[in-house]
Amino acid sequence: GRWLYAGGEDFHLSVFETESWTTVNKQDRSRWVQCIASSASGSHVALGGISSEVSILDVRQNWETVMGIELKGLVPLSASWHPNDQALALTGQTDSVLVVETSNARHMRGHHLHSMSSILSINFSPDGKTAIIGNEVGIVTFFAVSQTTFEIT
What are the distances in angstroms from CA 56 to CA 1, 36, 84? Predict the structure, then answer.
C-alpha cells in the first residue's frame, strides 16, 4: 500500500509514505496504539489501544478521527476490515470476535465466532467469504461468513 502505519507504547500514530519512507503524519494519542488496521480501500484506519474503544480515522482528512466505537469491555489487539469496508472485526485476548458496522458504529447482532482459547488474530479472505481466526494455542480456524456467523451485505 501507499502508507505504513506504526504505533505502540509511545502514545503516537506514525504514518510513513512507502515510496520515500518519509514520515507524513505523526499524531499524539491518549493511549497506547496496540492495534492498527487499514481499510481495504485505504480510505480509513482503525486504531485500538488500552481502552475498550476503537477510533476510525479518515485518511482523506489528514487522518482525523471521524468515529469512536465503544467495544463493551473488549480491548482490541487485532482488527480486520471486511473487504467491502462496511464491517470491522476485532478481538483481543477473549474467546470471541466482535464485529461492528463501520458506517454507524453499530455492533452486529446475531451469531458470533468463538474459540476454545483466546483469539489473537482475525483476517478475511480477499473475497470476504471466509474469516480466518488464530488463537493462543496455535490453532487456525476458517469460518464461512454467512447468516450462521455474521452477515455483511
Answer: 18, 10, 16
Which cell is 11 given? Answer: 502514545
User: What are 64's three cell numbers?
Assistant: 482525523
Q: Do 146 and 152 form a contact (C-beta atoms < 8 A)?
A: no
Arithmetic mean of pLDDT over the chain: 84
Q: What is the dihedral of CA 86, 127, 41, 1, to 10 degrees?
A: 140
How much is the average pLDDT of 38-60?
Answer: 91
**In 3-state terms, the chain is what percent helix, strand and coil (to 5)?**
0, 50, 45
One-letter amino acid at 85 equals D
How many other C-beta atoms can be found within 10 angstroms of the C-beta atom of residue 32? 16
| CA 143 – CA 123 distance, rounded (Å) | 11
pTM: 0.82
Residue 47 has pLDDT above 90, yes or no: yes
The per-residue pLDDT for 62 is 94
Residue showing cell 489528514: 62
